[in-house]
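Lab meeting, item 3. Inverse folding demo.
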């Protein structure tokens, strides 16, 4: 079976890739398991040197990797460049700090000595999405390699070029052969890979539905999973907020990656006192964004990654409008063979509409006003998702108090939600479990072993 790479700007095929056969997959799993038996014996200093090499390769190939993303999934070049640089920063971060994160932790008991030590698990299968085809992989891979694990990647089927480029980066950086490999397989073949006894854990970033399937399969085999799933992040705008800052930040967050980000702002909850002013500013800034070819300088919004995904998004918008939502900008599918969708704002949103209940994975904003702070918090938490959230207020103490009340894995005050190698990242409820990044992320795929000396 062939995997096709298609340019979402014009629907033209870029390249066909041959899928790996079941026999090839088994061979690759065995190769990476064997590589792990040596890799786990390397020192942290040796692993850190490897990560620094990876960082250097990323910086060297930055522009061509950004172009590859633009072609395969429509990411504007400036965003692609920033993504590659972020991957390099994560590699440098873990190279610098992993010794501190993984050092033995001594615990006072009645023993002469007792401590926890952190040992690698083995080969981790990473199932990754197309929206950040490099960052999603490296935020798992950098800490996993530093912890002494090895990795196999099952990437989204529309970014095979990016998947193979990551394998080439690891090889060019001079890491031992097979410590990381890409599997070109379909989603239906993932279960059999998880079943392989040489696979010790699974990490997935993707939809809630995909997470349920993978978690169920892994749990049936008692294998550890970390899931980063969908989100419908609420942004609360209070009456004392800096509205210029709030509107600018909200638009920037809603349009991250042309709206295709789990942690993009999706539900905007202004309190009634500033509702009209906020909507006017928000609309003005959304209309100022330029949609176009991701390879052209000045493009803010590229196409959606695939035409079918764009069509699903438009169906959610249409159903919301049919249920009473009001579309004040956008909401129309452009003519031609492409996957573009314009910045769109929906108001008059009610519970039961797709724009309230579901994740809208594209440049569509749902504005849901609240009477006051208390109702804003209630609306924000009225969701099956719990990935990120944000609050805009000039009263920082008030903002912190609200942040603690929001059901989310992270909450930002007067700033858009974003991942940072230094901070733990992940969600609750239907947005998943476990954490990536920071000291918490590197300890997800280790055996936390107690050692006790009488």
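The presenter then showed the designed sequence:
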């Amino acid at each position: 079976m062939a995997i096709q790479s298609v340019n979402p700007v014009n629907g033209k095929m870029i390249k066909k890739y041959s899928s790996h056969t079941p026999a090839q997959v088994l061979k690759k799993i065995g190769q990476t398991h064997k590589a792990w038996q040596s890799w786990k014996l390397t020192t942290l200093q040796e692993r850190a040197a490897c990560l620094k090499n990876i960082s250097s390769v990323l910086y060297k190939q930055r522009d061509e990797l950004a172009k590859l993303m633009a072609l395969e999934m429509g990411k504007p070049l400036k965003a692609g460049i920033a993504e590659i640089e972020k991957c390099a920063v994560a590699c440098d971060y873990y190279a610098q700090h992993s010794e501190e994160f993984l050092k033995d932790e001594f615990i006072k008991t009645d023993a002469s000595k007792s401590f926890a030590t952190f040992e690698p698990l083995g080969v981790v299968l990473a199932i990754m999405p197309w929206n950040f085809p490099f960052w999603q992989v490296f935020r798992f891979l950098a800490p996993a390699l530093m912890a002494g694990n090895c990795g196999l990647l099952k990437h989204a089927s529309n970014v095979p070029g990016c998947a193979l480029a990551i394998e080439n980066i690891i090889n060019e950086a001079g890491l031992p052969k097979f410590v990381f490999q890409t599997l070109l397989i379909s989603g239906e073949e993932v279960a059999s890979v998880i079943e392989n006894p040489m696979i010790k854990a699974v990490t997935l970033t993707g939809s809630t539905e995909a997470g349920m399937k993978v978690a169920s399969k892994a749990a049936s085999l008692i294998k550890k999973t970390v899931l980063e799933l969908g989100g419908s992040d609420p942004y609360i705008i209070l009456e004392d907020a800096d509205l210029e800052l709030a509107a600018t930040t909200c638009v920037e967050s809603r349009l991250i990656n042309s709206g295709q980000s789990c942690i993009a702002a999706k539900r905007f909850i202004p309190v009634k006192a500033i509702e009209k002013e906020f909507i006017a500013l928000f609309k003005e800034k959304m209309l100022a964004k330029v949609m176009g070819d991701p390879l052209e300088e000045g493009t803010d919004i590229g196409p959606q990654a695939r035409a079918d995904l764009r069509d699903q998004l438009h169906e959610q918008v249409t159903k919301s409008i049919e249920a009473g939502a009001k579309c004040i900008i956008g909401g129309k599918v452009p003519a031609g063979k492409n996957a573009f969708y314009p910045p769109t704002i929906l108001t008059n949103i009610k519970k039961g509409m797709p724009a309230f209940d579901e994740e809208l994975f594209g440049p569509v904003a749902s504005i849901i006003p609240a009477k006051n702070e208390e109702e804003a918090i209630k609306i924000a938490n009225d969701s099956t998702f719990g990935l990120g959230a944000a609050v805009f207020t000039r009263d920082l103490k008030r903002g912190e108090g609200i942040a603690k009340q929001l059901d989310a894995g992270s909450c930002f005050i007067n700033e858009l939600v974003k991942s940072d190698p230094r901070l733990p990242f992940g969600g609750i409820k239907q947005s998943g479990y476990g954490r990536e990044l920071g000291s918490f992320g590197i300890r997800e795929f280790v055996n936390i072993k107690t050692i006790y000396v009488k």
